[in-house]
Hints:
The protein is α+β, with helices and mostly antiparallel strands. Helix content is 48%, strand content 6%. The chain contains 7 helices and 4 strands; from the N terminus they run βαβαββααααα.
Amino acid sequence: MKLYDCQVAPNPxxxxxxxxxxGIELEKIEIDILGGENLQDEFLAINPRGLLPVLELDDGTxxxxxxxxxxxxxxxxxxxALLGRDLKEKAIVTMRQRKMEFDGMISTSEVxxxxxxxxxxxxxxxxxxxxIPAIPALIDRGTQTLERFFWWLEKxxxxxxxLAGEQFTMVDITAICAIGFAEWVxxxxxxxxxxxxxxxxxxxxxxxxxx
Length: 211
Ligand SMILES: N[C@@H](CCC(=O)N[C@@H](CS)C(=O)NCC(=O)O)C(=O)O
């Protein structure tokens, strides 16, 4: 089994953090996204979407969505549970994790890719047909959605120490990776979001944050 990875990219980081929290070690193959290696034939033969991360199972099956990979390992090794322990927790983690993805990861991607000169003709990541040019107006939309993302983090942390309650979960992992990604475009947790700043300092000190 192996993981196609990219050390600097936020979605592969989510999987590495998840695996580190579970203490699972895997062979990793580094793909250089910034150098365009994910769009070369050799990698497209592995994932025609040109996206990372990709998990390759021993029977050759390939899984190329971060959450699908995490779900796989949650089943293989349920402890510590990172996707919820019972029906209610699982539903809450699924719900909030989606929010972290849409308002955190995807909004940051909107800001980043629509302003970075490398992506002027490729504002949507990965391969597959159409050229999708940057739309500068999406920088503002992404920035505003990130304000909403930070608002939600502060609100969730009024309910418990972590973003889905009492336990550290995938919701925290996706949020940590989104915040790290937002720093690339110089967007930071607002100073007045005191709970979020404290939570971020604490969760960033977990060994998995270095994975
Ligand atoms: N929904 C996918 C998103 C994967 C994704 O966008 N990966 C980025 C790295 S964070 C990528 O492969 N980018 C390639 C590119 O920029 O062409 C997932 O969660 O795995």
